[in-house]
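Running this now, will post back.
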Amino acid sequence: EVQLVESGGGLVQAGGSLRLSCVASGFTFDDYAIGWFRQAPGKEREGVSCISRSDRRTYYMMSVKGRFTASIDNAKNTVYLQMNSLKPEDTAVYYCAAARECGLRLDYWGQGTQVTVSS
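Update: finished.
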């Protein structure tokens, strides 16, 4: 059974930090790019970051560059999203997802973890 399980969300004050984790199982982890997405109430889903397998680069949306860092631990089948200098506009449900490469169809999704940033 394919699973992506996120954890690490919570409530934090503006300027604070959180680290999200995404543990993958049931598929060949090394063959997939892993992205983080978020969706706030009433808004469209946004792509936050993506770790590419082909060029080994990590891509970020403009509004989180310099504040968020995605990393991967292949030995643990886990992807992390370190979020610093959080802002109220970062409030959303955060999801991890797997695709054959960044920008391609998303094959697997996690259930999401809520991040709330208070002002």
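The mean pLDDT is 96. More later if anyone needs it.
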